[in-house]
Design goal:
Structural class: alpha+beta
Helix content: 40-55%
Strand content: 5-15%
Distance between the termini: 31 Å
Radius of gyration: 34 Å
Shape: elongated
C-alpha cells in the first residue's frame, strides 16, 4: 500500500510537470484550476479502485464514470442531477469547438470553453493511463509515454520568446522520480541489505529522448508568431487556404494590438476572404465540411498582373491603398473588394483567387512539409492595392430580380432554418421589401436601426451547437459581428437571396498628422489619410450578389461605437462611419461617379497546370531559420539516444557481475533470466516460486530440467539467506546464460516479435474474463 501511494504521488508529480508548458499557450491562467482538479480526481479515483483490488477493466469503467461526472459538472450547464441527451450533445459541441479552435486560434489564445474541454479531458486520461502503467503493471518507462506526449504538444505551436529549458525542468524532475523508483515488489528485485534502485531499459529510452528534446528545444522552437518547425495537423490544417473565421478570437484578446497601417483617400473595409460555405457552425472557403481549400488552377492568378473580377461589375470607382503590416501573421493579404491589381515589390510573391476573392501571400506547393502553406504576411510586409468599389445606381439594383436556380451554390444551407425563414418573411412584409436588395436592406436595418432589440457585445460564448443561431436571433439577441453576419446571411439564403459572409477588418482609426493634410490623391482629389487598424477592428459582414453589379456589402452589426459603414438605400457605399455621419449631422456624401477602372485592362493568364506560381514564396525572412536544427540532425541525435539506451540496458544486464556481493550476484543473474523470459512471452507467472518456474520450463520442454532446477536452488538460497558456495556467483551466471539461450530458441520468431503487444492484450483480456466470472458467481448466489 505504501509503495502504491509513493508511485501514485510520482504520477501526480509527472502530470503537474507535463502541463506547465501550457502556460505559454494560453493568455491567462484560468485553465490551471480545472486541469489540476482533473488530474487530482483522476489519480485519486484510480488509486482508490486499485486499493479495493479491482482489475484494470473495472478501473477503466470507474474512471469513465468519474470523467463523465466531472465533465458534466465542470463544462456543461447542469439541468438535473444526472446528465442526459442534451448534456452529451452540448459536450459534443464543445469538443467540436475545441478542435476548431486548436487548429485555428493563434497562441497565446483565450481559454475558450472548447479548448478547456480538450485540455482537462487529456489531463484526466493521461493521468489514468500513467497510473495504470506504473502502479498496476509496474512499467515505469511506458508510464512516461502518455505524459511525454501531453508535454510535447505545446512544443509544436508558436510560442512567445524565452528560454525553453526552465519549462522542461518540472516534467523532467517528475520523470526522474518515476525512473528512480523501483517498481518491482518481488523479493528478487531487492538486495538483502539495501533497496537497490535500478533503471529500466524502457525508462532509460524515454528519459533519454525527453532530455534530448528539452536540450534541443531552445534551438528548434520558433519565436513568438513565427511558424513552428512542425505544424500539428498539417495536411488537414484549415490554415491552408482557410482564414480565421471566428473573428471573436481577435476581438477578445486581453489587450488589442495594432495590426495594419493604411494610407488611403477614403475609409474602406479590408477583406481577407469571402466565405460561401456554411456547415451550421462556421463559414468556410471551399465545400462545406472541408478543413483546407485550394482553388482550381483556372481560378488562381499571379498577383503581378491585372486581376479579373469574381463577377462582372458594370459601374465602379477606383480606390487606392498602401498597406504596411504592423503585427499580423497571416496567409491572406487584407484588400478592399474588388482588387484590380497589387502594387509594390511583393506582388510577384502573391496570388489571387476568383473563388473567395482573396489575395494570398504564397501558393500551396507539393514540396512543403505535409502540404503546409507558408505564411508570408508578417511584420514589416508592405504592398499596395488598386480596387474597384462597386457603385451601382440605387435605382438599378433596387428592382433587380435574381434567378435562384442559376445561383444555387450561394443558397445552400445545412438545415432548413424554418423559424429564421418565417421571421425574415415577416420582416419583408412589414417593411414592404419585395426584391433581393430591398430584402437585404430590410434585414440589415432590422438588426441595426434605433430601437432594435439586439445588443453588441463580445462577452458571449461562441456561436456553436445545434439551435444556437435560432436562440441568438429569437431569444438572446446579444453577440458580436460574426453572430449578426451569420444570422443575416442565413436568413437571406433561407428566403432565396444569394448571400455570403466576408471576414476582414474595418477601416480603423484616423491618425493622420497635421503635416499630411496637404497630401492629395491625384485621382480623386481628396486628401490621403493614415489609418491604424487594430484587432478590435476585426469584423465580419454580409455580401449580397447583384448580377452585373458585383457583390454588394451590407453590415448588420449594431456596434455601439458606430465604427461600421453600412450602406443606405440612397448611398450603397458611404465614405463615413455611422459615428462620423452622426457628428456631421447627416449622411456621407455620394461617391463621385467615375468610368469603370477595369476598361481596357488585359485579362491575366491563369497559373500553369503544375499549380506552382511561386518559385520563392515570401517567408518571415532569412534570419527566421537561424539557430534552427535540421530534421536529419534531430533524427541522428534521437538515434544516438536510442543506441545509448540500448547500451545502458546491455551493461545493466551484463553476464558477469563480480562487483556485487555473492547473494546479489546470484539475484542479478535471476533478474536477467526473468526479464529475458518475459520479453519472449514465457516469463514468471503470478504467485510462482523460483522452483515452480523452473519446473514449468522443464515440463514444456524449453530448458534442461537439471540446469533449471539448480538455478532455482541457487536463487532461493540467495533470496532467503541460504548457504552458498564460493563459486555460486559464477555458476548462477553461467546457468542463467544457458537458460536465456534455451528459452529464446524455444519460442518462434513471430511470437517473440508479437510479444510486446500480445502480452499486455492477454493480461487485459484475462482481467476482463475474471471480472465476468466474478459477476456470474455473485449473480448465482
Amino acid at each position: 500500500m505504501r509503495r502504491d501511494l509513493v508511485l501514485g504521488a510520482a504520477v501526480g508529480a509527472v502530470m503537474v510537470g507535463a502541463i506547465t508548458v501550457f502556460a505559454r499557450v494560453f493568455a491567462d491562467g484560468s485553465w490551471q484550476g480545472p486541469t489540476l482538479v482533473s488530474i487530482a480526481l483522476a489519480l485519486a479515483l484510480a488509486m482508490a479502485i486499485r486499493r479495493l483490488g479491482a482489475g484494470p477493466v473495472t478501473s477503466t469503467i470507474a474512471s469513465l464514470v468519474g470523467f463523465i461526472t466531472f465533465s458534466y459538472i465542470t463544462h456543461v450547464e447542469t439541468e438535473g442531477l444526472f446528465p442526459g441527451t442534451a448534456s452529451f450533445a452540448a459536450y459534443r459541441d464543445l469538443l467540436v469547438e475545441g478542435v476548431r479552435a486548436f487548429r485555428e486560434a493563434e497562441a497565446p489564445t483565450e481559454v475558450l470553453p472548447g479548448l478547456l474541454v480538450i485540455v482537462t479531458g487529456a489531463a484526466w486520461w493521461v493521468t489514468f493511463a500513467a497510473h495504470e502503467l506504473l502502479v498496476r503493471f509496474r512499467r515505469p518507462g511506458l508510464s512516461l509515454l502518455p505524459p511525454a506526449v501531453l508535454w510535447a504538444v505545446p512544443l509544436a505551436v508558436p510560442l512567445p520568446p524565452g528560454r525553453t529549458w526552465p519549462q522542461a525542468l518540472p516534467f523532467l524532475a517528475g520523470a526522474a522520480l518515476v525512473l528512480l523508483l523501483e517498481p518491482d515488489a518481488d523479493v528478487v528485485g531487492w538486495s538483502r541489505d539495501r533497496p537497490a534502485q535500478r533503471l529500466t531499459s524502457a525508462g532509460m529510452a524515454v528519459g533519454g529522448v525527453a532530455l534530448a528534446v528539452a536540450a534541443m528545444a531552445p534551438a528548434m522552437l520558433p519565436g513568438y508568431q513565427e511558424p513552428p518547425w512542425y505544424d500539428v495537423g498539417a495536411g488537414t490544417d484549415p490554415r491552408g487556404y482557410q482564414p480565421i473565421v471566428d473573428v471573436g478570437d481577435r476581438l477578445q484578446l486581453p489587450e488589442p494590438r495594432d495590426v495594419l497601417e493604411v494610407r488611403s483617400d477614403r475609409r474602406m473595409y479590408y477583406r481577407l476572404a469571402a466565405l460561401d460555405s456554411f456547415d451550421g457552425t462556421t463559414w468556410r472557403l471551399g465545400p462545406s465540411g472541408s478543413t483546407s481549400f485550394r482553388p482550381n488552377d483556372e481560378q488562381l492568378y499571379r498577383a503581378d498582373a491585372d486581376l479579373p473580377p469574381e463577377v462582372p461589375i458594370q459601374r465602379a470607382v477606383e480606390a487606392r491603398a498602401q498597406i504596411r503590416v504592423l503585427d499580423l501573421e497571416n496567409i491572406f493579404a487584407p484588400v478592399p473588394y474588388q482588387p484590380l491589381r497589387v502594387t509594390g515589390p511583393a506582388r510577384g510573391q502573391m496570388v489571387y483567387s476568383t473563388d473567395g476573392g482573396f489575395v494570398a501571400s504564397a501558393e500551396l506547393t507539393d514540396n512543403e512539409l505535409a502540404g503546409r502553406l507558408v505564411t508570408g504576411i508578417v511584420e514589416g510586409f508592405e504592398y499596395g492595392v488598386i480596387s474597384a468599389l462597386p457603385q451601382p445606381d440605387p435605382d438599378d439594383v433596387r428592382d433587380l430580380v435574381i434567378d435562384p436556380g442559376a445561383l444555387a451554390e450561394h443558397l445552400q444551407l445545412p438545415a432548413a432554418y424554418e423559424q429564421l425563414g418565417v421571421l425574415a418573411e415577416q420582416i419583408y412584409v412589414e417593411r414592404g421589401a419585395a426584391t433581393p436588395i430591398e430584402k437585404a436592406f430590410a434585414l440589415q436595418n432590422y438588426f441595426i436601426e434605433d430601437g432594435s432589440p439586439f445588443t453588441y457585445t463580445t462577452d458571449v460564448e461562441p456561436l456553436r451547437g445545434s439551435g444556437a443561431l435560432e436562440r441568438f436571433v429569437l431569444e438572446d439577441r446579444t453577440g458580436y459581428c460574426e453572430y449578426y453576419a451569420t444570422a443575416m446571411a442565413v436568413m437571406l439564403r433561407a428566403t432565396g437571396v444569394p448571400a455570403r459572409v466576408a471576414v476582414g477588418f474595418l477601416s480603423g482609426t484616423d491618425v493622420t498628422a497635421d503635416i499630411e493634410e496637404d497630401i492629395v490623391d491625384p485621382g480623386s482629389g481628396r486628401p490621403i489619410r493614415t489609418y491604424v487598424i487594430s484587432t478590435d477592428d476585426a469584423h465580419a459582414w454580409v455580401e449580397v450578389l447583384a448580377p452585373g453589379y458585383g457583390w454588394l456589402k451590407f453590415d448588420p452589426t449594431p456596434r455601439s461605437d458606430g465604427l461600421v459603414q453600412p450602406p443606405t438605400e440612397e448611398n450603397l457605399d458611404p465614405l463615413l462611419t455611422i459615428a462620423e455621419r452622426t457628428s456631421l449631422g447627416g449622411d456621407a456624401p455620394e461617391l463621385g461617379e467615375q468610368p469603370d477602372p477595369r476598361e481596357d485592362l488585359a485579362g491575366p493568364e491563369p497559373l500553369g497546370p503544375d499549380g506552382r506560381p511561386l518559385d520563392a514564396p515570401l517567408g518571415p525572412g532569412d534570419g527566421a531559420e537561424a539557430g534552427r536544427i535540421d530534421a536529419p540532425l534531430v533524427l541522428l541525435m534521437l538515434i544516438g539516444v536510442g543506441l545509448a539506451a540500448i547500451a545502458v540496458r546491455r551493461y545493466r544486464e551484463r553476464l558477469h557481475r563480480p562487483d556485487l556481493d555473492l547473494p546479489d550476484r546470484v539475484l542479478a543473474a535471476q533478474r536477467r533470466v526473468y526479464s529475458s523470459a518475459a520479453r519472449v512471452g514465457v516469463g514468471r507467472r503470478p504467485h510462482e516460486t523460483a522452483r515452480d518456474v523452473a519446473r514449468r520450463w522443464s515440463d514444456d520442454g524449453r530448458t534442461d530440467s537439471a540446469a533449471a532446477g539448480r538455478f532455482a536452488e541457487l536463487a532461493q538460497a540467495a533470496a532467503f539467506g541460504g548457504e552458498l558456495g564460493a563459486d555460486a556467483g559464477e555458476e548462477s551466471e553461467r546457468l542463467g546464460h544457458d537458460l536465456v539461450a534455451e528459452l529464446t530458441r524455444s519460442v518462434p520468431t513471430s511470437t517473440r516479435l508479437a510479444s510486446p503487444v500480445r502480452l499486455p492484450a492477454e493480461r487485459i483480456a484475462g482481467a476482463g474474463r475474471q471480472v465476468v466470472r466474478r459477476a456470474r458467481h455473485r449473480g448465482a448466489r
